[in-house]
Specification:
The chain is an alpha/beta fold. The protein folds into three domains: 6-100, Orthogonal Bundle (Arc Repressor Mutant, subunit A); 102-215 and 388-404, Nucleotidyltransferase, domain 5 (2-Layer Sandwich), CATH 3.30.420.40; 221-386, Nucleotidyltransferase, domain 5, CATH 3.30.420.40. Helix content is 38%, strand content 19%. The chain has helices at 19-23, 27-39, 44-51, 55-67, 138-156, 194-202, 211-222, 282-285, 287-298, 305-313, 317-341, 356-370, 387-404; strands at 6-7, 15-16, 71-72, 96-97, 103-109, 113-120, 125-132, 163-170, 173-175, 180-184, 189-192, 206-210, 231-236, 240-246, 249-250, 345-349, 379-382. The strands form five sheets. A five-stranded mixed beta sheet has the order 7-6-5-8-12. A five-stranded mixed beta sheet has the order 15-14-13-16-17, sandwiched between helices. A three-stranded antiparallel beta sheet has the order 9-10-11, covered by helices on one side. Strand 6 and strand 7 (125-132) form a beta hairpin. Helix 9 (287-298) packs antiparallel against helix 11 (317-341).
């Protein structure tokens, strides 16, 4: 049978995912299933238009998916406008993926928390788990991830046997194919085989991904990317990250590194970044850099980000200057990225968005000053993201890797490479 999912009558549960069949699915079946998943409900005619396949090829690919119960064309009501132009006798009902046919777990590791979500195949969040951590020491984080995974497994219950895999997202230079965190300055990790270690512990397929790229993948499949040919996500917080979606694809880079605007050398070399280099955007624009600048200027060693935000809103010149400088440098970095990649819009997200009003004017001024020609038409929009959204990105990365057969979820044994970047 050609298709993504097979019927397993031995369980009594009806439909179960067969990951081996997904990995062996034909390119046409993959394209059709992806189109239905990301754009459904959608008619067969529109699938043909989006994929470039003939209607006969679409029908051939869809038939086993419907038979397996993975795709449905049963709806209580039908919008006749959707099916205008259908041929007589040809099924006209819009197709949609059955969300509960497959599940994924996504886990985001930050310097203070491990956040996990369980999702269906449409990346709809079914359960969440939040575990504060006091240390980013590797073995401690492994234990925290294990605890979060156990909680989510309990929440899924009998649905656990339909788990596609587990996605874990972290900051820094990540070799997703090998499951290796080459370098994460924020976590203090170098060449950690996170994917293999978690696979050995869970006995499940594990995908390790850069956190900003995972967030971009989620927008690619279930957000901005569905209707936007090119966009970028810039995250502001403990680091400055950037994910790129260009001409319908997430940019991953030949070595797994792309879009690291936080490490563009756009400020004075007097400022030392957490990555060890001088003059990085992140060295003056991250949350910790802003706190350091305001703390030094006010001679207050116990200063916090909340203190800096409060004083800046009250008009304190030292605190306001720290945010102004951060906004200026981020604006330059965004202009540089837009000049190179030419996205239609830039989405600004991350925990730093809560203070975005303190960045906004300087950021937009610096962007307008440095954006070249028509690149200045790129829109800059703001959207708050919760940590659950980061974890959902990790789950979406699992779903995408499985559906598109991009690479095996089970990490291969790979030669570790020297760090080329971190965030």
């Amino acid at each position: 049978m050609t298709g993504v999912i097979a019927v397993d009558d031995t369980t009594g549960a009806g439909v179960r995912p067969t990951l081996e069949l997904l990995r062996a699915a034909s390119p046409a079946a993959v394209d059709v299933f992806t189109c239905i998943l990301t754009r459904g409900p959608i008619s067969r005619i529109d699938i043909a238009r989006h994929t470039g396949l003939s209607q006969a090829a679409v029908t051939k690919a869809v038939a086993p998916l419907i038979a397996a119960g993975v795709v449905s064309d049963n709806h209580e009501t039908h919008n006749q406008d959707t099916h205008r132009g259908s041929s007589p006798g040809r099924p006209a009902n819009p197709l949609r993926v059955v969300p509960e046919c497959l599940f994924a777990i996504g886990i985001k590791v930050s310097t203070t928390d491990v956040i996990g979500v369980a999702t269906d195949i449409s990346a709809g969040i079914l359960a969440t788990s939040h575990l504060p951590i006091s240390s980013t020491e590797y073995s401690s984080v492994i234990e925290a991830i294990t605890t979060v995974e156990a909680r989510l497994r309990s929440e899924l219950g009998s649905r656990w046997d339909r788990l596609a895999g587990i996605g874990v997202s972290v900051s820094g230079d990540v070799d997703s194919a090998g499951g290796i965190v080459r370098a994460s300055a924020l976590l203090g990790w170098t060449d950690k085989p996170l994917g293999a270690d978690l696979h050995a512990r869970f006995g499940r397929d594990v995908l390790v991904e850069n956190d900003v790229r995972a967030l971009t993948i989620a927008e690619h499949w279930f957000g901005l990317g569905v209707g936007t040919a090119s966009f970028a996500i810039v995250t502001i917080g403990s680091g400055i990250g950037c994910g790129l979606h260009v001409n319908g694809e997430v940019v991953e880079g030949a070595f797994g590194v792309a879009g690291e605007i936080g490490h563009l050398p756009l400020t004075s070399p007097d400022h030392i970044c957490t990555c060890g280099r001088r003059g990085c955007v992140e060295a003056v624009a991250s949350s910790s850099a802003i706190v350091r600048a305001a703390s030094a200027g006010l001679d207050r060693p116990d200063f916090t980000l909340q203190d800096a935000v409060r004083l800046a809103h009250e008009g304190n010149p030292t605190a306001a200057a720290a945010f102004d400088r951060a906004g200026t440098v981020i604006g330059r970095a965004i202009a540089t990225m837009v000049n190179l990649a030419g996205p239609q819009l830039v989405l600004i997200a991350g925990e730093g968005v809560a203070e975005y009003d303190l960045y906004d004017q300087r950021l937009r001024e610096a962007f307008a000053e440095h954006a070249f020609g028509a690149a200045a038409n790129c829109s800059i929009v703001i959207r708050p993201h919760a940590f659950e959204d980061w974890a959902r990105g990790a789950a979406t990365a699992v779903i995408r890797a499985l559906v598109t057969q991009r690479y095996p979820l089970r990490p291969r044994v790979a030669r570790t490479q020297g760090a080329t970047s971190s965030s």
